Amino acid sequence: MRYVSGKLLERWLIVADLPRRKLALSNDPKVVETVMLDRGGVFPKSDVVHDLLVPLIGEGVFGQPGGTRVKETRRIFSRSLATIPDEVMRAVTERLTREYVDRWLRSPGGRVGISEEFSRLTVDVVSEVTLGDRFSEEESIRFTRLFFEYHKKAAALLLMIAHDDVTTRARIIREMGLSPIGAEMRELMLRRFVKPILTGARPLESAPFALALAQSGRMSEGAEGEQALLDEIAVMLLAGHETTASTLSWLASELAGRSDLQDTAAMALSGKSAPGGYWREASPEAVADALAKEALRLYPPIGFFLRETREEAVFRGKQVPAKSFFVIAPWTLHRHRSLWSRPDEFAPMRWLDGSPAPARTSYMPFGLGARICPGARFAAVEMETILRGLLPRARLTLSPGKRAKPLGNLTSRPDREIVLGISERRRADG
Ligand code: HEM
Questions:
Q1: Among residues 77, 44, 85, which one has the least CA distance to residue 63?
Q2: Which tens digits make up the pLDDT trace of 315-358?
Q3: DSSP element (H, E) containing 141
Q4: Which Pfam families match (predicted)?
Q5: CA gap 256, 91 in Å, rounded
Q6: Beta bridge partners of residue 308, listed in sequence order
Q7: Are the beta carbons of 154 and 176 closer than 8 angstroms?
Q8: Per-residue pLDDT for 430 more than 50?
Q9: What is the CA(280)–ligand 1 centre distance, in A?
Q10: Best mutation site among 80, 86, 125, 243 for ligand 1, i.e. most ligand atoms within 8 A of its Cβ?
């Protein structure tokens, strides 16, 4: 999607030729419903997703096309997240946000690379809440920088073009250089989280996700057991932090460019919304929710779902052969001119002004159907808590320099560091 834009991407159905296969993309609500929900089994995740992620998450659930094992594993993720009360997520997030914001406010020159910092904060939150520990400062800096490098190199389109040509495909993967990065990230996760769990140094009671895996018989001895545990822990940590960090980075950047909106949001998040003002009488929770939803609309962290067709299908009179790639893209759906009013405008109030909720086929930052995100509640509580801990305390301003764009490889994270000015918000600032 970095290569094509504008009206072409708004078509209800595009079927294009790649060198060896067809590629379909659809924005048609009925087609979206069919591919993601009604006939999801016929449109599993593409194995390109698996191949791009294998150096990092091994055979972890996120890269798997589907089937019974995926259903079972997803149940373990969902069950473990369901056992964690909102108050626990909130307390951990509050404490860590305070620590990070204190440090940001002391940063030299008042400048902070906010995308890296949000990645570090969110990986700390998800690891402390689900595994009872977090990386050291040095480890977390290394981990987030490596993941950024991984993102830059993991270009799905290259693999889609090379598809089925085994030699070219193997060469492309080798040349992308994902394996050494993935190996180093796995080593960091192994040392910090997996080994202490397996040796008993970290009690399972403090690590709800590890406990759920153990209770489901997914914790076994030996090198294979260690790697299998690492695969799923890597999914939890990676899916559970980069998405939230990316949303918060874009949101912070939007607010830094709109001081009026930022000031009223800061007031409203501290419960001081002025009647008749922008936020009317919305509660702090509702304001945080509207800000997050609007950032997720304009910058959905997973900008496209890459599926494959198991059987031939006909949509809108066009034939899509078996073994084609099929893309459903929140990125285009969320900005589609026929589905949204003022689609390109950052307008959080649209979520509070009584307008009808969007159709599930027009707005799906957390996905739809069998592979829908099991961490949506976690993300909502976490983002609300971070916004309430940050905006009433700190004023954000843009820094000079080239503006970041969405990277669009694995996720829509910014393609360069977003550096913001951060200063103490005085009472007079709102
Ligand atoms: C703003 C935050 C988040 C967004 C937008 C988001 C979005 C998504 C989406 C779209 C998928 C499905 C991908 C697909 O169908 O191909 C997904 C999967 C997943 N998410 Fe999230 N997510 C977020 C936060 C989280 C959090 C906080 C956690 C855990 C604490 C989490 C855990 C997972 C897991 C484990 C999967 C894989 C499920 C599977 O493979 O079936 N996510 N997420």
A1: 44
A2: 999 999 999 999 999 999 999 999 999 999 999 999 998 889 99
A3: helix 137-153
A4: p450
A5: 27
A6: 325
A7: yes
A8: no
A9: 32
A10: 243
Read off the DSSP letter of residue 20. S
Q: What is the pLDDT of residues 64-81, one digit of tens each?
A: 999 999 999 999 999 999
* Strand residue runs (E) in 27-153: 111-113
Atom of ligand 1 at shortest distance to CA of 369? 15
Judged against a pLDDT cut of 80, whether residue 375 lies above it is answered with yes
pLDDT class of 1 with cuts at 50, 70, 90? low
Which atom of ligand 1 is found nearest the CA of 81? 30
Q: Which residues contact 200 (CB under 8 A, 6 or more apart)?
A: none
Distance of CA 155 to the CA centre of its chain: 17
Looking at domain 6-401, its CATH class is mainly alpha
Inter-residue contact 243 to 379 (CB < 8 Å): yes
For residue 328, list its beta bridge partners.
305
pLDDT tens digits along 21-67: 999 999 999 999 999 999 989 999 998 999 999 999 999 999 999 99
Scanning 240-392, the segments in alpha helix (DSSP H) are 242-256, 259-269, 284-298, 330-333, 376-390
The string over 317-333, giving b where at least 16 C-beta atoms fall within 10 Å of a residue's C-beta and e elsewhere, is eeebeeebbbbbbbbbb
Tell me if 373 is assigned to a ligand binding site: yes
The pLDDT assigned to 80 comes to 97
DSSP letters spanning 150-213: HHHH--HHHHHHHTT-HHHHHHHHHHHTHHHHHHHHHHHHIIIIIHHHHHTSS-GGG-HHHHHH
How many other C-beta atoms are found inside a 10 Å radius of the C-beta of residue 257? 15
CA distance 331 to 408: 10
Q: Are 42 and 309 in contact (CB under 8 A)?
A: yes
